[in-house]
Amino acid sequence: MMKADSIAVDGAGNVPERNVLVARGQRLEYLTLAWNGFEATVALASGLLAGSVALIGFGLDSVIETASAGILLWRFRADADAQRREHAERTAHRLVGVCFVLLAAYVAVESVRALWMRAQPERSLPGILIAAAAVIVMPLLARAKRRVARQLSSRALQADSRQADFCMYLSAILLAGLLLHATLGWWWADSVAALVMVPIIAREGVRALCGETCDNCA
């Protein structure tokens, strides 16, 4: 008979072994590392070429998400030992919270800076394409992470899934800003929209730092 903490019941009533779920979570984090590495490279290169503060900020956001994925991989490696698992879970949850706070601070500073400098980037087709791709990819990745987080009762993975959600929101904001600037000349649109996201991102970061349990992972 399996120990209670080695299994988790999914929505379909099946009882996959915990190590299968951990392996699934690891695959999702490796996919996150690969995608965000590609996303960061394209966004940063496009942003530098076009002089786009928003694109550069988006690329740095991808770097922060890569760090978050690395934290989760470390947490999964500690899963075999029950005592070590709980310590790793708490530590990873707080470290992901730090990533959220850093992201909120960066988005706020860069948005205000872009508005102050009246930054008007050139049109960037690679930037538009990577933002559009992220709008499609990140919700799928976030949904898959939330499913595994519920099955593992992992607050850290749930918080990491929110990071993917925010990437999707910021991608949509970036895409809208680039398109509005290209078509209507509204250079300020993406910076204003990004500022709206700052308190939402910061709140998630503070919750994670305080160790609050997510609503959907228990």
Protein described:
- By secondary structure, the protein is an all-alpha fold.
- The chain has one domain: Alpha-lytic protease prodomain-like, CATH 1.20.1510.
- Helix content is 79%, strand content 0%.
- It contains six helices and no strands.
- Helix 1 packs antiparallel against helix 4.
- The longest helix has 36 residues.
In short:
This protein is mainly alpha-helical. 79% of the residues lie in helices and 0% in strands. The protein contains six helices and no strands.
Mean pLDDT reading: 78
Question: What separation lies between the terminal Cα atoms?
Answer: 23 Å
Q: Nearest-angstrom radius of gyration?
A: 18 Å
The first-level CATH class is given as: Mainly Alpha
Strand content: under 5%
Please tell me the total number of domains.
1
Structural class: mainly alpha
Note the total helix count: 6
What would you give as the CATH superfamily? Cation efflux protein transmembrane domain
Secondary-structure element string: HHHHHH
In the CATH hierarchy, the architecture is Up-down Bundle
The count of β-strands is: 0
Estimate the helix proportion, in percent: over 70%
